[in-house]
Amino acid sequence: MSEIFWFVPVAGCSALMFAAYFYKQMKQESEGNETMRSIAGYVREGAMAYLKQQYKVVLFLFLILAVFLGILAYRFQLQNEWVPFAFLTSGFFSGLAGFLGMKTATAASARTAEAARTSLNRGLTVAFRSGAVMGLVVVGLALLDYSFWFFVLKHCAVGASEAERVLLITTTMVTFGIGASTNALLARVGGGIFTKAADVGADLVGKVEANIPEDDPRNPATIADNVGDNVGDVAGMGADLYESYYGSIIAAASLGAIAFFHQPNLQWNAVLAPALIGALGIVLSLVGIFQVRVGCVESGKAILKALDHGIHVAAIGLVILSYFLLQWLGLGVYLWGSLIAGLITGIVIGKACEYYTSAEYKPTRLISQQAESGAGPVVIGGLGAGMSSTMIPVFAVVIGMAIAFGLASQFQATAFNKGLYGIGLAAVGMLSTLGITLATDAYGPIADNAGGNAEMSGLPKEVRQRTDALDAIGNTTAATGKGFAIGSAALTALALVASYVQELKCGLMRMGKEFVEINGEMIKTSDVSLVELMHFFEVHLLNPKVLMGMFIGSMLAFVFCGLSMNAVGRAASKMVDEVRCQFREIKGILTGEAKPDYSRCVRISTESAQKEMLLPALLCITFPFLVGICLGVAGVIGLLAGTLASGFVLAIFMANAGGAWDNAKKYIEEGHFGGKGSEAHKAAVIGDTVGDPFKDTAGPSLNILLKLMTIASIVGSGLTLAFQF
Amino acid sequence: MSEIFWFVPVAGCSALMFAAYFYKQMKQESEGNETMRSIAGYVREGAMAYLKQQYKVVLFLFLILAVFLGILAYRFQLQNEWVPFAFLTSGFFSGLAGFLGMKTATAASARTAEAARTSLNRGLTVAFRSGAVMGLVVVGLALLDYSFWFFVLKHCAVGASEAERVLLITTTMVTFGIGASTNALLARVGGGIFTKAADVGADLVGKVEANIPEDDPRNPATIADNVGDNVGDVAGMGADLYESYYGSIIAAASLGAIAFFHQPNLQWNAVLAPALIGALGIVLSLVGIFQVRVGCVESGKAILKALDHGIHVAAIGLVILSYFLLQWLGLGVYLWGSLIAGLITGIVIGKACEYYTSAEYKPTRLISQQAESGAGPVVIGGLGAGMSSTMIPVFAVVIGMAIAFGLASQFQATAFNKGLYGIGLAAVGMLSTLGITLATDAYGPIADNAGGNAEMSGLPKEVRQRTDALDAIGNTTAATGKGFAIGSAALTALALVASYVQELKCGLMRMGKEFVEINGEMIKTSDVSLVELMHFFEVHLLNPKVLMGMFIGSMLAFVFCGLSMNAVGRAASKMVDEVRCQFREIKGILTGEAKPDYSRCVRISTESAQKEMLLPALLCITFPFLVGICLGVAGVIGLLAGTLASGFVLAIFMANAGGAWDNAKKYIEEGHFGGKGSEAHKAAVIGDTVGDPFKDTAGPSLNILLKLMTIASIVGSGLTLAFQF
Question: What is the ipTM of this complex?
Answer without folding.
Answer: 0.94
